[in-house]
From TrEMBL:
The keyword Oxidoreductase applies. Pfam families: FAD_binding_2 (PF00890). This is FAD-dependent oxidoreductase 2 FAD-binding domain-containing protein. InterPro entries: FAD-dep_OxRdtase_2_FAD-bd, FAD/NAD-bd_sf, KsdD_DH, Succ_DH/fumarate_Rdtase_cat_sf, TAT_signal. GO terms for molecular function: steroid dehydrogenase activity, acting on the CH-CH group of donors.
Amino acid sequence: MEQSGSARISRRQAIGVAGGVVAGATVAQAAGVPAFGAAAAADADVIVVGHGLAGLVAAAELVAAGRKVLLLDQEPEASLGGQAFWSFGGLFFVDSDEQRLMGVRDSYDLAWQDWLGTAGFDRGITDPAGQDYWAYKWAQAYVQFAAGEKRSWLAGLGLQWFPMVGWAERGGGVADGPGNSVPRFHVTWGTGPAIVEPFEKKVRAGVAAGKVVFKFRHRVDEVVVTNGAVTGVRGAILEASTVARGKPSSRTAIGSFDLKAPVVIVASGGIGANHDLIRQNWPARLGKAPTTMITGVPAHVDGRMLAITQTAGGRVVNPDRMWHYTEGLRNWDPIWPGHGIRILPGPSSMWFDATGKRFAAPDWPGYDTLHTLGSITASGYDYSWFVTTQKIVDKEFALSGSEQNPDLTNKNLWLLLSRIWQTPGPIQKFQQYGADFVKAATLPELVAGMNRVAGNNLIKLDALTRQIEARDREMDNAYSKDAQVMGIRNALSYPGDVLGRTAAAHRFLSTDAEALVAVKLNVLTRKTLGGLQTNLQGQVLNAAGTPVPGLYAAGEAAGFGGGGVHGYRSLEGTFLGGCLFSGRAAGRAAAAATGS
């Protein structure tokens, strides 16, 4: 984490914001005095609630339009950028330069086919009162954005992408069903912090110009509505906190605030750290909610603002749609409570339920996360297993998170190239110190280790041996009836997978495997797919489908657009993109609404 922290400091030094300006803004916050003049009827043109990526993008648009902005968050300044800072930096582009370099033929039509097959919109897409009405429209607009100006817009801000495009969510095996038909996962050079940086820079320039005031440690408890229109926010000022990014901060209140503006943009994130709220909204179609889950986001991702905005008249739709990962590891070096890390797997590991029964199609690594989640809960247990080889771990395993990828995050090309001849350092540490890895020279030793880690005797040597030997026999030819083996062969026809993400096909029970590895996989909470329903301008709608005057939403709080742009599933690389797109739309619309 020291590397991530130092990288953040160096970026802020590069931004070159004068210390006196920041100090002055801090004094203004502490005194509760609007920086724009106490005589004004409003404290700002727009109040943005949430200083994550969507909030920063919205604020940057408002600054560009000359508006005065208050940017509030309950967390301290160290957490500026929110969850995006911790991300791997994956972005969904369609027909990009990087795709063409890798020989990938993509198009808007193919991407839209994939989005529809993955989302499965089924809640009134033609009915203005339907939960999916605006979600469908946002999805169309977003795929057009991803196939159009998205890449050039971000490139113009200085972002670059690793040339090997990843193939996430490969789907369920039919052309018009879930999944990406082609690789579309573009890893940003510099990962999540690099995506946050240009927008933070723009907002800090707004601070220097007197257009923006940060109000850290300001927890919004009410969106104020007067005569049917939003007129500001009220809440508590929390005591100062010096905790590091991502660490839980105090909730001790030392005062209150009442801030006025004709427009409020809610960009407060989702519910990923609130396990009680996740279980409350857990859909019956996914079986019983897991008793034990690990957490993929900091503790402040609590979903409070959804209910608060609903009280102000906003409509929350699709609350039962959520995105939790099935390949979670307990972090051996946690930052927040219950901190989990996701394995980003290649296609070769065998996947078994807690009893040692191999999952069927499409429950393979990297294929259909939502279906696999349902299969895990149907097994009656909260966890599952990868059984794999060290050769596959070395080539195919990556970990989510900027801090787990110091080579990409710190733009260290030499360290990145070292992945060719050695297991990445973070993977080595998880194998050495993590609670979920088992490594063994023989299958009996592996089974004993799996049962020891799980604290039971559910894995039976004879059954596991039979299934692995059956799979190994399918490796003798370049064709197979085993659909997962066919998928491995398919991956090996894509240059990006050959170079970086798929091990050469081999038997598990052979000397080529190097060693056997088992990984206990936990359900990892992450994203809220439903949320505040918004029109294409980011205006929050009420139960009648009418915009609540002065109320906007962006990012995860709005289901990344429209109250659920993803439908039931994500194609991956679309969460950061959803924050960018919806934050930009809300910021521009709010700027227009407050123009003279």
